[in-house]
Amino acid sequence: MASPRKHVPYEFSLKEAKRKCSEKNSCFVMEKTTEHIVLHPRYLGCVKKGVHEHMKCKLMRHSDILNGVPVNYEGFEIEQRAGSILEESPYIHFDVKVNVILFKPTIGSTLVGTVNKLGIDHVGCLVHNCFNASIAKSNFTNGLLFDSLDIGSEFTFKVIGTEAVNGVLAIIGEVKEPKDNKRKRKHKDIETVEKQSNDEGDQPREVTKLYPKRLNQNGLNIPDGNIKVKKREKVDKHSREKDRMEIY
């Protein structure tokens, strides 16, 4: 009978971690820090190997000191030529400087998640295929995106909180969906048309028409000519000015 498969945690290669540092919305950063090493006596003849083993044990676990999750590291420099032994403990203590690549999401940063769980009141997703994030239904602006998500769907969210328990990081997010501007635009266009109509109604309009006959001041017919009509319309629900005609 085959033995059960051992769970292997997700790991980032140094090349992949460096590449993600330059990607947008990845929250990967490289920081130079000082790490305190507690070296086992068996590594006295191979100190560098002991330092590597120490650093590997800290990867993919949230660090309260660094305020992030170390995913990989690059090079280190031992600061002391001699270590310290405390009381009766056989372990050697010394410090090293090392460049650590961290996954360090902060409140307000943006991440991309892949849905791996759909609940009644929340959505669970993975960030970078390994970090857990949860978005409550109430944290979706209008709920349209929440109803359209499926397992494997990708979406962008904003970090509003983080929590670490036993070295495991959990991310809390929210989704600000774009509002439906179509209806708003329609109302805006109607208001613009009404405003233009009001502006035109307040201004007098001059209309020139041709009439076959016209009368002079004595009531007699005079040759055909132009009658200039000054017409002023007042936009009012209850009143309207009468047209005035002047003969020249």
Describe the structure.
This protein is α+β, with helices and mostly antiparallel strands. Among the domains are: 14-103, RNA polymerase Rpb7-like, N-terminal domain (Dna Ligase, domain 1); 109-174, OB fold (Dihydrolipoamide Acetyltransferase, E2P). The protein has helices spanning 14-21, 47-58, 144-148, 181-201; strands spanning 28-39, 69-78, 84-85, 92-103, 110-118, 122-127, 131-136, 154-165, 168-174, 205-211, 214-215, 221-222, 225-231, 244-246. A 5-stranded mixed β-barrel has the order 5-6-7-9-8. Strands 1, 2, 3 and 4 form a 4-stranded antiparallel sheet that branches. Strands 10-13-14 form a 3-stranded antiparallel sheet, with no helix packed on it. The longest helix is centred in the last third of the chain and has 21 residues, at 181-201. The N and C termini lie far apart (115 Å). Its main location: nucleus. Residues 188-208, 233-248 have a biased composition (Basic and acidic residues). Belongs to the eukaryotic RPA43 RNA polymerase subunit family. It comes from Stylophora pistillata (Smooth cauliflower coral).
Shape: elongated
CATH topology of the domain at 14-103: Dna Ligase, domain 1
User: Please, what is the CATH homologous superfamily of the domain at 14-103?
Assistant: RNA polymerase Rpb7-like, N-terminal domain
* Spans of at least 5 consecutive residues with low confidence: 1-8, 181-190, 204-218, 224-248
Query: What's the mean pLDDT score?
Result: 77
Query: Strand-residue fraction?
Result: 35-45%
| Helical coverage, percent range | 10-25%
What's the arrangement of strands in the largest beta sheet? 5-6-7-9-8
Strand/helix succession: HEHEEEEEEHEEHEEEEE
Biggest sheet, in brief? 5 strands, mixed, barrel
CATH architecture of the domain at 14-103: 2-Layer Sandwich
Separate helix tally? 4
